[in-house]
Specification:
This protein is an all-alpha fold. The protein folds into two domains: 54 residues, Homeodomain-like (Arc Repressor Mutant, subunit A); 134 residues, Tetracycline Repressor, domain 2, CATH 1.10.357. It is 70% helix and 0% strand.
């Protein structure tokens, strides 16, 4: 009984930390938020807070995981005609500090030994599959060229999205959602070209 109670309390503390971290980083900005800031708002010591996550990097990864879960839930509740990547970009525009957190961890995770590496590898595969599936659905509905390589296009869109988020850190005026929407429009009206350079024929 005591073990179940302790486990439930641990989950509640973990959830509180993640929700607080999301709110504090979103309000203050990633660069201006320290672990001490988050711990202070939660009402814990830094050591007590990290007891639930092990390291700062693990905590930040879980913050991003929580953000992604909230985004998936919001998209499911608000279905629309726009591609998922565009809708996600519009939602991200409302929380630039979390985009900053994402890009900083993404760059750091390019090192194979970084604790966030596995998270980004799994996330990239998952997002790629979602985008590719959306393209195939649009192809079946006649909204995109049947000869378009869905997997290749998904890879391009994912790379473009991440690249734009990095670039926006230098030039905040970039409207990522509009650039992605424009790119989708070009894909929808472009005749696919085969690897030999000739236009694909059906």
């Amino acid at each position: 009984m005591r073990e179940r109670r302790n486990s439930a309390q641990g989950r509640e503390s973990r959830d509180l930390i993640l929700e607080t971290a999301l709110e504090v980083i979103g309000r203050r900005g990633y660069g201006a938020t320290s672990l001490r800031d988050i711990a202070g708002e939660v009402g814990m010591t830094q050591a007590g807070m990290l007891h639930h996550f092990g390291t700062k990097e693990n905590l930040l990864v879980e913050v991003l995981r929580r953000r992604d879960a909230a985004t998936r839930e919001a998209l499911a509740e608000q279905a629309g005609a726009e591609p998922p990547s565009v809708r996600v970009a519009r939602r991200n525009a409302e929380a630039p500090a979390l985009v900053h957190l994402y890009t900083n961890l993404l760059v750091a995770a390019s090192a194979s030994e970084h604790p966030a590496r596995a998270f980004f590898e799994e996330r990239q595969e998952s997002v790629h599959d979602v985008v590719a599936a959306d393209i195939r659905q649009r192809q079946e509905a006649g909204g995109m060229p049947a000869g378009l390589d869905a997997d290749m296009a998904a890879t391009v869109m994912l790379a473009l999205s991440d690249g734009l988020q990095l670039q926006q850190g230098v030039d905040p005026s970039i409207d990522i959602a509009e650039v992605l929407a424009w790119t989708w429009e070009q894909l929808a009206r472009t005749d696919p070209v085969d690897r030999g350079g000739a236009a694909a024929t059906s």
